[in-house]
């Protein structure tokens, strides 16, 4: 076993365990901090998929933006949640909602089954690209390649998503304004 | 070299955990967190498959798009949550089942 | 419209009148009822006075008196034949005493109803309908008409017990109703069977005429109830025997015999006093009358063969009823059981198939009619005053209510068969008739007569015990001072009701010919009808 | 003809006077308490009975007249009057006894709050008893027979507030009812076989006195079973009325009534009616029945005498003495010497009535004295009396005469009549021989016992010393009032021999025996006429000497708690036996039957109703859940499906999502499987 795979497993374990803890913990504040760990672990896993820029972005956008936003929203939202914060000390782990659990396991089962059956018959394009040698290698400069691609091949989606992001942010600001302001 | 299946299994786990959070949590913020987990699982898949597409870099590009979209969705989602809370004085999705005022 | 019809339908007029008068004038209802029953009593006395005692009746149509026959329902049923139902009434020596008795008992019961204040309109209207039905039953000679009256009798009684009764009135009313309805429904089957077996010799159509049913010549050959040429069997029992048993069953419930008597104590105990009076005074007699008029006259051949069993039932009823009466603690229930015992004599007398026994049975019916009415009235007097009938709750009433005690003592002694009173004549002649049965070879062994006479002894036991327990000794009452004040002696109205019964008991005890004179011819006629089959 | 009316009309008048008096008394109620009406009525009856009926009829003629009563079937029953030697004698005896009792009652019952009832009942009794004597028809006789029982019931329970009186009259009536049933059965048997109840038709109008073969009864086979049964049935009737063992138990209890009543009804007349009945229907009896009568009579006489020995209640001693004497009369009838029985009945009526009247006087004075002296004791108890001859000398003399008569001392009437029975019994027994000799021997023993117990009574009451002597000085003890003494003296005179015949010793020369000649078939034995009276008298004197030493000299050899004394005092435990066997048994049976009735007979009804209701409930269940259930289950299935789908549409986001994902999973699974 290589160090690479050990690290992979460590990250994977960290992500999964933290995620499990995240969904089972009662205290929302702690859950959000656990989410922070999960996102970090996920970023680590992206690295193993040779997507360094994505990992960086993940940390910047998620940890720096989304998570802060969530925490602020949570802190701002209500005293009911704060009450909840205080009353949760008794039950560190909440009882699972069994229908959801069943459904979740069912999905897991189905997916794992399909991956296993699928791994025997890989799609052709993977084999072809392996054969052509057109796979991303650790030595490749991903950031540069991505920059080119955004500016050339994916320029239209890039612009659309930019506008979309702005619309979403403006919309968010509008929705969350005080009603008195109207 | 980590095989593709490894990534897929891990992403499946995270996805299912996110799914569970979405279905079971009694807190809208946690549902949002669940959605983030699922998006992350998807991003992991994008990235894992993207390794085999050096020509288009589709995997990584769309992973970035997805991250952006997720951020936008969180922003909009939180705005909605705050509004909903202001209206219903709760963020328990089970108590929010009426479309009318 | 003959006198008999007037007698029957006068109460109906009273009913209409009562219904027409608004409730605001409810005080008049009892006077209307009293007037009409008095009128009826007068008519019945007139009938009695103008009755020709030499005519027998039973199966001879021209020996019936005050006969009215009108075509009532005539329907052409095509292949089945013609439906022929007559309005056919008339009386003979068997029905006359009972009609006079009924009018008297009705009068008494109206007298006993004087203080009814729970919806008197309905009460008196129902009472009058009952009155009509009773008169109708005793004078109907068409079986269909008889059945109609017989059924009409049930309904007012059901309501009278069920509405004006005591604590468990619904239970008692339903029990009474179901029991008697069971009997009459079965009777209907036999009536239909008889209808299809008998033809009217004059018109050739099937008929419900009871007198035609009594003549063996009128039976269609091979028909279900055919007399001589009868091959019909049900479960291996001859059809005529079945018919007899079913009819007997229907009337035996009314009598009542042991073990079909259980409706009686309940009905009596729960019924209001006037209804108890009618039940004991008239209703039970319908049973005895039915056995003589229907069972014995239409099925003389079976009657001659089954009288051993009937007498046995009679003896059992006598002794069983008397022993049960001895065990009672409720005065009214005791008298109800004594009725079972006394009506057992009727059955024994009828079954003896001797002139003495039959006449004694008829006499016993008449005597028991007004004596039991008087007894129930006396219980009612006590109950009115303190709302209690429990024998152990009273003691030494004689010092408190001397007149009442005198009437009770006379009624008790009359009922237990003290000579000089009517019950003695009835019971003595039933016993004599039962003894005589062996000489006449009608098949009644003498031990049955002896068994019956034990009933007389037992009746003395329970009546005297009650007398001693309730009336003698030092005055001691359950209710203490309150009762002592409530227990006033008889008032004038009560004495007016009671005195005639006591006087009548004495009169008939001394001059039994008043009853025997009129029914003797009919009794001999009936014996002659049955004799060929012995 | 001493009166210008026929004996028939006269006897009807004799009957009617008391009836009218009774009805009038009933109507007047408390307005007439003197009893004059009853007295006048009985006086009239007595006079008419003596001059209008007895004297014209006695030993000369017999008459009957009947009127149609009612017709039943082919038979017509008559009511009528039969006057012959027997009935005329009986009627006269009743009248002559009733008259002094009426006079006596005026004093004895004075001041009683219910005295108007007393006169009414007494007159009613006289009517019934007088009617009984002259009835022509057996049914008519039965009616009067029960009526006397009814009057006796009323009189025993005269003081009805006393619990013992109320119990006693019930007992008396019920036991008499047993006898009445026997009588009724006898009547029914005679009617069934002879077709008539007319005594004159049955036994000839003179009764059976001279021409036994003329009546209808002569044509029947006397050894037929029904004759035996009918005879026994009649005897059962007589047993209850005349207090024969074991149906005698009512008589001692009947002493709860006023003493005057006891003297008239329960000593002289009514209880003798049984003997009278047996004499009336005597021709009906065959050998078997007669033997049973003799045995029962002897048993009764013996038990009565024995029980009398142990009684302390003065009236009960006399009651048992009556029972014992009635037993003698029964023996007389049983041996065929009904003439002797009637003779003894007559003499017994006088002296026993007198005994009771004397006892009544004693009780009366004791009660008064007790009230004055403010003591509390039972005035009827022998043990509280003693030495009374000094205070009530006239009563003493009367009572001694009556007692001598009862004991059969020569020169009294009792001597004549009792000897006639004992001697005839001896003749009868020696004619038949064998074990029959037991009967006269027993009778002699009983006679001596009789003398002894009546001697005991006299000695205890009149001799010795008064128990409450210390009080006697302050409060005077009176002689009985005149109104009571006169009847007593009259009866005392009637208890001596001259009334019944001039011969002092020969009962055959008595006018009653001369007329009522029973034609006994067995030969007379002269020596019996000598040694039996001698034996009886000697025995009686011996008994009195023993009694003197026992009761006056206080040398009583037995302890009071002796078992034999107890046995006699408790009347042989017969009452207890009856109570526990018959009364309790009947009550228990009735209770069980009622339970049976409630739970079995009515239970069947209830079971049926329960069953029908159960069945209908089952059918309803079937209808509701099976038939209707099919319909409903369709509807319900639809409803549930709808409901299920409705659950999804509950407005909950997570629910929607979960449902959608479930469907997705199912779809994927489907795809995987296919």
TrEMBL record, chain A:
* Source species: Sphingobacterium gobiense
Q: Enumerate the PANTHER family for this protein.
A: NADH-UBIQUINONE OXIDOREDUCTASE CHAIN 6
Q: Name one GO cellular component term.
A: plasma membrane
Pfam families of this UniProt entry? Oxidored_q3 (PF00499)
Ribosomal protein keyword on record: no
* Segments crossing the lipid bilayer: 6-25, 32-49, 55-77, 98-116, 154-175
Q: Which InterPro entries match?
A: NADH_UbQ/plastoQ_OxRdtase_su6 (IPR001457), Nuo/plastoQ_OxRdtase_6_NuoJ (IPR042106)
Give the family this protein belongs to, as stated in its UniProt record: Belongs to the complex I subunit 6 family.
Keywords in alphabetical order: Cell membrane, Membrane, NAD, Quinone, Transmembrane, Transmembrane helix
Q: What is the official name of this protein in its record?
A: NADH-quinone oxidoreductase subunit J
GO molecular function annotation: NADH dehydrogenase (ubiquinone) activity; quinone binding
Catalytic reactions of this protein: a quinone + NADH + 5 H(+)(in) = a quinol + NAD(+) + 4 H(+)(out)
- Can the keyword DNA repair be found in this entry's annotation? no
From TrEMBL, chain B:
Any one GO BP annotation for this protein: ATP synthesis coupled electron transport
What enzyme class is recorded for this protein?
A: translocase
Please give the GO cellular component terms listed in this UniProt entry: NADH dehydrogenase complex; plasma membrane
Described by its record, this protein's role is as follows: NDH-1 shuttles electrons from NADH, via FMN and iron-sulfur (Fe-S) centers, to quinones in the respiratory chain. The immediate electron acceptor for the enzyme in this species is believed to be a menaquinone. Couples the redox reaction to proton translocation (for every two electrons transferred, four hydrogen ions are translocated across the cytoplasmic membrane), and thus conserves the redox energy in a proton gradient.
Family matches, as InterPro entries = NADH_UbQ_OxRdtase_chain4L/K (IPR001133), NUOK/Mnh_C1-like (IPR039428)
Tell me which species this is from.
Sphingobacterium gobiense
Protein name per Swiss-Prot or TrEMBL: NADH-quinone oxidoreductase subunit K
Q: Where are the transmembrane segments?
A: 6-23, 30-49, 61-85
TrEMBL record, chain C:
| Principal place of residence | membrane
Protein's recorded name: Oxidoreductase
The membrane-topology field of this record reads: Multi-pass membrane protein
Q: Where in the cell is it found?
A: Endomembrane system; Membrane
Q: Where is the NADH:quinone oxidoreductase/Mrp antiporter transmembrane domain?
A: 140-439
* Gene Ontology process terms (BP): ATP synthesis coupled electron transport; electron transport coupled proton transport
Q: Which UniProt keywords apply?
A: Membrane, NAD, Translocase, Transmembrane, Transmembrane helix
Q: Does the keyword Transmembrane apply?
A: yes
Bilayer-crossing residues are 6-24, 31-49, 87-110, 122-141, 147-164, 176-198, 241-263, 275-296, 308-327, 334-355, 361-383, 404-435, 447-467, 496-516
Q: Name one Pfam family in it.
A: Proton_antipo_M
Q: Where does the record place the NADH:ubiquinone oxidoreductase chain 4 N-terminal domain? A: 84-133
Gene Ontology, cellular component aspect: endomembrane system; membrane
Lineage of the species this protein comes from: Bacteria, Pseudomonadati, Bacteroidota, Sphingobacteriia, Sphingobacteriales
Q: Which InterPro entries does the protein's record reference?
A: NADH4_N, NADH_Q_OxRdtase_chainM/4, NADH_UbQ_OxRdtase, ND/Mrp_TM
The GO terms this record gives for MF are: NADH dehydrogenase (ubiquinone) activity; NADH dehydrogenase activity; ubiquinone binding
Instruction: Give the family from UniProt.
Output: Belongs to the complex I subunit 4 family.
UniProtKB/TrEMBL annotation, chain D:
Q: How does it sit in the membrane?
A: Multi-pass membrane protein
Any one GO molecular-function label of the UniProt entry:
NADH dehydrogenase activity
GO CC annotation, single:
endomembrane system
Originating species:
Sphingobacterium gobiense
User: Subcellular location, in the record's words?
Assistant: Endomembrane system; Membrane
Keyword tags:
Membrane, Transmembrane, Transmembrane helix
Name of this chain's protein: NADH-quinone oxidoreductase subunit L
Q: Name one GO biological process term.
A: ATP synthesis coupled electron transport
Residues covered by the NADH-Ubiquinone oxidoreductase (complex I) chain 5 N-terminal domain? 69-118
Domain of life assignment: Bacteria
Ranges for domain NADH:quinone oxidoreductase/Mrp antiporter transmembrane come to: 135-432
Q: Name one Pfam family in it.
A: Proton_antipo_M
Annotated membrane-spanning segments are: 6-26, 38-58, 78-99, 119-136, 142-160, 181-203, 223-240, 261-283, 289-310, 317-337, 343-363, 395-416, 436-463, 484-505, 530-551, 656-673
């Amino acid at each position: 076993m290589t160090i690479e795979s050990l690290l992979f497993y460590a990250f994977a374990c960290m992500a999964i365990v933290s995620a499990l803890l995240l969904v089972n913990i009662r205290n929302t504040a702690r859950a959000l901090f656990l989410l922070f760990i999960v996102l970090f672990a996920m970023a680590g896993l992206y690295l193993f998929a040779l997507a360094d820029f994505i990992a960086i972005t993940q940390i910047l956008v998620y940890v720096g933006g989304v998570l802060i936003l969530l925490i602020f929203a949570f802190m701002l939202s209500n005293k009911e949640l704060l009450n909840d914060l205080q009353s949760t000390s008794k039950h560190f782990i909440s009882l699972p909602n069994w229908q959801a659990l069943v459904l979740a396991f069912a999905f897991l089962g189905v997916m794992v089954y399909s991956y296993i059956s699928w791994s025997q018959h890989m799609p052709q394009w993977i084999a072809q690209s392996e054969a052509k040698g057109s796979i991303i290698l650790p030595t490749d400069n991903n950031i540069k390649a991505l920059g080119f691609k955004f500016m050339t091949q994916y320029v239209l989606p890039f612009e659309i998503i930019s506008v979309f992001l702005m619309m979403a942010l403006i919309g968010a600001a509008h929705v969350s304004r005080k009603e008195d302001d109207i | 070299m980590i095989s593709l299946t490894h990534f897929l299994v891990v992403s499946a786990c995270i996805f299912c955990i996110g799914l569970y959070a979405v279905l079971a949590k009694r807190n809208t913020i946690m549902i949002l967190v669940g959605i983030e987990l699922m998006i992350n699982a998807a991003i992991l898949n994008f990235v894992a498959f993207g390794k085999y597409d050096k020509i288009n870099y589709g995997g990584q590009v769309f992973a970035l798009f997805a991250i952006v979209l997720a951020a936008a969705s969180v922003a909009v989602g939180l705005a909605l949550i705050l509004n909903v809370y202001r209206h219903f004085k709760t963020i328990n999705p089970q108590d929010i089942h009426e479309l009318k005022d | 419209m003959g006198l008999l019809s007037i007698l029957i339908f006068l109460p109906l007029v009273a009913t209409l009148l009562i219904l027409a008068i608004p409730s605001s004038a409810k005080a008049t209802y009892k006077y209307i009822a009293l007037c009409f029953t008095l009128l009826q009593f007068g008519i019945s006395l007139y009938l009695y006075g103008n009755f020709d005692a030499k005519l027998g009746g039973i199966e001879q149509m021209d020996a019936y008196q005050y006969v009215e026959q009108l075509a009532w329902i005539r329907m052409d049923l095509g292949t089945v034949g013609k439906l022929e139902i007559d309005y056919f009434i008339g009386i003979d020596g068997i029905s006359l005493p009972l009609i006079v008795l009924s009018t008297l008992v009705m009068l008494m019961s109206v007298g006993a109803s004087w203080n009814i204040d729970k919806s008197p309109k309905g009460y008196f209207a129902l009472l009058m309908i009952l009155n009509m039905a009773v008169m109708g039953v005793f004078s109907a000679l068409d079986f269909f008409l008889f059945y109609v009256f017989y059924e009409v009798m049930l309904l007012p009684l059901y309501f009278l017990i069920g509405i004006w009764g005591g604590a468990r009135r619904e239970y008692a009313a339903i029990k009474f109703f179901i029991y008697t309805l069971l009997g009459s429904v079965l009777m209907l089957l036999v009536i239909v069977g008889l209808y299809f077996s008998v033809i009217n010799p004059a018109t050739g159509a099937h008929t419900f005429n009871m007198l035609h049913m009594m003549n063996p010549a009128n039976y269609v050959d091979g028909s279900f109830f055919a007399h001589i040429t009868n091959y019909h069997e049900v479960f291996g029992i001859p059809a005529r025997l079945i018919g007899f048993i079913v009819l007997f069953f229907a009337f035996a419930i009314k009598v009542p015999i042991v073990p079909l008597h259980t409706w009686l104590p309940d009905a009596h105990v729960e019924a209001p006093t006037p209804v108890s009076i009618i039940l004991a005074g008239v209703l039970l007699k319908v049973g005895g009358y039915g056995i003589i008029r229907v069972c014995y006259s239409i099925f003389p051949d079976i009657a001659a063969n089954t009288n051993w069993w009937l007498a046995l039932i009679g003896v059992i009823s006598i002794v069983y009823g008397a022993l049960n009466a001895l065990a009672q603690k409720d005065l009214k229930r005791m008298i109800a059981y004594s009725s079972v015992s006394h009506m057992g004599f009727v059955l024994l007398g009828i079954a003896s198939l001797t002139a003495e026994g039959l006449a004694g049975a008829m006499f016993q019916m008449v005597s028991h009619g007004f004596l039991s009415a008087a007894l129930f009235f006396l219980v009612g007097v006590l109950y009115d005053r303190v709302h209690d009938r429990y024998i152990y709750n009273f003691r030494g009433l004689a010092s408190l209510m001397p007149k009442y005690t005198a009437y009770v003592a006379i009624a008790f002694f009359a009922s237990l068969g003290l000579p000089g009173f009517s019950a003695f004549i009835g019971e003595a002649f039933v016993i004599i008739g039962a003894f005589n049965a062996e000489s006449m070879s009608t098949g009644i062994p003498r031990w049955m007569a002896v068994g019956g006479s034990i009933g007389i002894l037992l009746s003395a036991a329970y009546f005297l015990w009650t007398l001693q327990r309730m009336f003698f000794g030092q005055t001691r009452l359950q209710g203490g001072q309150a009762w002592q004040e409530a227990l006033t002696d008889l008032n004038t109205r009560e004495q007016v009701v009671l005195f005639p019964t006591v006087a009548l008991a004495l009169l008939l005890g001394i001059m039994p010919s008043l009853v025997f004179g009129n029914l003797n011819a009919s009794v001999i006629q009936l014996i002659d009808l049955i004799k060929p089959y012995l | 003809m001493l009166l210008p009316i026929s004996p028939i009309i006269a006897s009807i008048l004799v009957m009617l006077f008391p009836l009218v008096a009774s009805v009038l008394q009933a109507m007047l109620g408390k307005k007439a308490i003197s009893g004059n009406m009853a007295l006048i009525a009985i006086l009239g009856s007595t006079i008419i009975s003596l001059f209008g009926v007895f004297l014209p009829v006695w030993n000369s003629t017999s008459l009957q007249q009947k009127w149609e009563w009612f017709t039943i079937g082919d038979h017509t029953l008559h009511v009528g009057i039969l006057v012959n030697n027997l009935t005329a004698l009986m009627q006269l005896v009743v009248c002559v006894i009733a008259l002094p009792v009426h006079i006596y009652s005026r004093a004895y019952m004075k001041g009683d709050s219910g005295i108007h009832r007393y006169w009414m009942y007494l007159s009613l009794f006289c009517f019934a008893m007088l009617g009984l004597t002259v009835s022509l028809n057996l049914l008519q006789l039965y009616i009067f027979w029960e009526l006397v029982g009814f009057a006796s019931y009323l009189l025993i329970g005269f003081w009805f507030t006393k619990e013992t009186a109320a119990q006693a009259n019930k007992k008396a009536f019920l036991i008499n009812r047993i006898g009445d049933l026997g009588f009724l059965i006898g009547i029914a048997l005679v009617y069934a076989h002879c077709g008539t109840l007319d005594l004159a038709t049955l036994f000839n109008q003179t009764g059976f006195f001279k021409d036994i073969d003329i009546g209808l009864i002569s044509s029947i086979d006397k050894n037929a079973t029904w004759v035996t049964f009918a005879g026994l049935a009649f005897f059962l009737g007589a047993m209850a009325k005349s207090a024969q063992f074991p149906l005698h138990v009512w008589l001692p209890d009947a002493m709860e009534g006023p003493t005057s009543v006891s003297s008239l009804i329960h000593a002289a007349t009514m209880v003798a009616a049984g003997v009278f009945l047996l004499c009336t229907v005597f021709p009906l009896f065959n050998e078997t029945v007669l033997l049973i009568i003799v045995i029962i009579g002897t048993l009764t006489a013996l038990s009565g005498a024995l029980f009398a020995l142990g009684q302390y209640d003065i009236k009960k001693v006399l009651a048992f003495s009556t029972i014992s004497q009635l037993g003698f009369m029964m023996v007389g009838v049983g041996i065929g010497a009904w003439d002797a029985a009637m003779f003894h009945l007559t003499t017994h009526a006088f002296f026993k009535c007198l005994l009771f009247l004397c006892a009544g006087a004693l009780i009366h004075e004791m009660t008064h004295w007790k009230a004055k002296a403010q003591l509390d004791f039972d005035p009827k108890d022998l043990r509280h009396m003693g030495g009374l001859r000094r205070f009530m000398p006239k009563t003493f003399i009367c009572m001694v005469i009556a007692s001598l008569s009862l004991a059969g001392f020569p020169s009294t009437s009792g001597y004549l009549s009792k000897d006639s029975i004992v001697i005839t019994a001896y003749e009868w027994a020696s004619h038949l021989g064998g074990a029959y000799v037991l009967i006269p021997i027993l009778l002699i023993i009983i006679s001596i016992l009789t003398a002894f117990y009546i001697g005991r009574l006299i000695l205890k009451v009149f001799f010795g010393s008064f128990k409450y002597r210390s009080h006697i000085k302050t409060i005077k003890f009176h002689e009985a009032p005149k109104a009571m003494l006169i009847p007593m003296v009259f009866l005392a005179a009637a208890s001596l021999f001259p009334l019944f015949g001039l011969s002092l010793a020969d009962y055959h020369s008595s006018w009653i025996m001369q007329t009522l000649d029973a034609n006994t078939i067995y030969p007379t034995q002269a020596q019996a006429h000598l040694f039996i009276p001698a034996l009886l008298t000697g025995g009686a004197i011996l008994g009195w000497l023993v009694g003197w030493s026992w009761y006056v000299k206080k040398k009583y050899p037995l302890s009071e708690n002796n078992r034999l004394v107890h046995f006699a005092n408790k009347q042989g435990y017969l009452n207890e036996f009856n109570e526990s066997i018959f009364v309790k048994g009947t009550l228990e049976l009735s209770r069980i039957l009622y339970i049976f009735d409630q739970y079995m007979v009515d239970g069947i009804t209830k079971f049926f109703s329960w069953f029908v209701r159960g069945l209908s409930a089952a059918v309803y269940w079937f209808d509701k859940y099976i038939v209707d259930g099919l319909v409903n289950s369709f509807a319900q299935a639809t409803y549930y499906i709808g409901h299920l789908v409705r659950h999804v549409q509950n407005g909950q986001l997570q629910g929607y999502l979960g449902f959608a994902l479930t469907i997705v999973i199912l779809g994927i699974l489907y795809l995987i499987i296919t």
